[in-house]
Amino acid sequence: MEIYVKYESEASKYWDTFYKIHKSKFFKNRNWLLREFPEILPVDKETEEKMGEPLWDLVETDAANCFSKMPEEKNYYEKSSGSSDDQSKREFDRPSLDSEEDRKGPPKTELFPGSDATFRILEVGCGAGNSVFPILNTLQNIPESFLYCCDFASGAVELIKSQSSYRAAQCSAFVHDVCDDSSPYPFPDGILDVVLLVFVLSSIHPDRMQGVVNRLSKLLKPGGMLLFRDYGRYDNTQLRFKKGHCLSENFYVRGDGTRAYFFTKGEVHRMFCKAGLDEKQNLVDRRLQVNRKKQVKMHRVWVQGKFQKPSHWTQNSSKLLFSTPFS
């Protein structure tokens, strides 16, 4: 039990060490994000006219092989000693939104970073910026948009701010522990159009996941989207963890001290719907990856979901019946 507490209390230290060692060269940019999650951008006719061509066309080339080339999942565990090779509909009674403010939208506030923007995105667990910079690259022609990004590893945030592509006028990178409810965000609740939660929730202790999702839900404006992608149950990574690396059911520690949980579609559904969000997508993505150099085949499993904060909350919204549970 003492070792479990150690990994929990020192989680930020392990990730900080990771980024100090690997800096920004470990993972490749996630250019596939814009193809898989077009909700990241305020795509409409006016935006497309400003860009000069459809946003979909801009990202199509880089994303053609979207998930078949995801180095964070493919190579991470080959480089972490003592670990392995890496990474629906409504059925849950949901509580009503917490306050009148959730229904009325964000209150009038003082100036804050991005206060003048009309479209705001938050990436949770931004790491060294492998999602940040592909997004910023596209947002540069959409000046009314703003990107927030946070990580509880201060070394990761420092790496992002040190990059020449970082633009403080359109991006705010900050250190933040999403598990700490007492730690405020540098902006008010209810103002975000998009929250991006990609391969982040799995690194959090299962007992704290619901609280994190509940808090992120409050940051969204009505109609805002939470975009999720993470490790799925029985992914090749989970099956290759060696004895002694399992902290609790489906929750493991890697050789470098960082942790990973493996989700089912049903768990994801219950967690986000319990936070008051409507499910728009919830799927299991199974892929066969082949390392031709090593002649190794890997069966990958990921869970991907899109969840929306209701535009109008009614009493009937919390009176949903259970359907057949997901596996």
TrEMBL record:
The keyword Calcium does not apply. Its EC number is 2.1.1.-. CDD domains: AdoMet_MTases (cd02440). It is an enzyme of class 2 (transferase). Keywords: Methyltransferase, S-adenosyl-L-methionine, Transferase, tRNA processing. Residues 86-107 have a biased composition (Basic and acidic residues). The keyword Lipoprotein does not apply. One of its GO terms (molecular function) is tRNA (cytidine-3-)-methyltransferase activity. It comes from the Eukaryota. Residues 122-226 form the Methyltransferase type domain. One of its GO terms (biological process) is tRNA processing. Residues 75-114 are annotated as: Disordered. S-adenosyl-L-methionine-dependent methyltransferase. Belongs to the methyltransferase superfamily. METL family. This is tRNA N(3)-cytidine methyltransferase.
